[in-house]
Amino acid sequence: MSINNNNNTSSNVTSPLGRTGRVVIELQDVKRYFQVGSETVKALRGVSFKIYEGEFVTIQGTSGSGKSTLLNQLGCLDTPTSGEYYLDGVPVSKMSRNKRAHIRNRKIGFVFQNYNLLPKTSALENVELPLMYNNEFTAEMRREAAIKALEAVGLADRMNHKSNQMSGGQMQRVAIARALVNNPAVLLADEATGNLDTRTSFEMLVLFQKLHRQGHTIIFVTHNPEIAEYSSRNINLRDGKIREDTINNNIKSAEEALAALPKPQDD
Ligand SMILES: Nc1ncnc2c1ncn2[C@@H]1O[C@H](COP(=O)(O)OP(=O)(O)OP(=O)(O)O)[C@@H](O)[C@H]1O
Ligand SMILES: [Mg+2]
Question: Would you put residue 243 in left (φ > 0), alpha (ψ -120 to 50) or beta?
């Protein structure tokens, strides 16, 4: 089923996840142009969509189609050349740099391909970090929230391990716990399984699907078309425009896919 991106009708679309619920993200004709010498690069040429609370959206497209440019908009790291972006109902483009940094810290959890953990720092300290900028949290509350987030990603037994004492999959779990610790409105992932082997990638997808079931809103940018089969909606970009926006009514189980993988060989 294709979603109609016309603003007048999109709110009437219903999905198994209740797309009539709260809109977390809304883009209205977002354009992002870059001036390179005398040339204008049109990285986003008018992108409009709404993302509802509890959706697990994959964003795909060939290299250069505008995925990272779009993610930078969604993550409040950049502002549009024209058009508007509403995050939790708040228009982002006119915000000051400071206000954007604040909203980014409170409303967005980032997961990157290369984990971006502090080196030689424990899992617990890495996860506590985003809360350092939040004066509503005392040291004790920070620790408590970080422990809870690490438990949620299955790392209760690795809290005191340092970044260099963990596997890629474990580091990515720490990064996901760090992204979740602020209880953000949306979780943004950029090629979050890009550096991981097949089995570990599926373990990560199991975790993302669990977070999705718990009601988290997830946006996952990836080159890998297979991952779309595990999300609830897929947005396909081409030349800075939406080529296709489809609801997945037949979400595959990452758990089943993981169980079906050949067992790792013992030596
Ligand atoms: N800061 C910039 N200055 C100039 N051009 C840029 C800038 N950032 C991106 N572009 C251009 O905008 C287009 C979209 O780039 P973007 O990085 O969003 O693509 P992508 O879909 O993420 O590609 P990939 O899959 O290779 O990561 C490309 O043509 C790129 O060269
Ligand atoms: Mg990119």
Answer: alpha
Q: What pLDDT, on a 0 to 100 scale, did the predictor assign at position 6?
A: 41
Ligand found nearest the CA of 237: 1
Look up the pTM and report it: 0.88
Q: Are 260 and 201 in contact (CB under 8 A)?
A: no
For domain 54-77+96-258, give its CATH number from 3.40.50.12780, 3.40.50.300, 2.60.40.420, 3.90.1150.10: 3.40.50.300
Return the SS3 of 165: helix
Q: How far is the CA of 247 from the centre of ligand 2 (A)?
A: 23
Q: Is the CB of 124 under 6 A from ligand 1?
A: no
Burial degree of 213 (CB within 10 A; 0-12, 13-18, 19+): exposed
In sequence order, the β-bridge partners of residue 110 are 188
Give the residue from 71, 63, 70 showing the smallest Cα distance to 45: 70
- Tokens coding 258: 């993981």
Nearest ligand to the CA of 240 is 1
Averaged pLDDT of the chain: 90
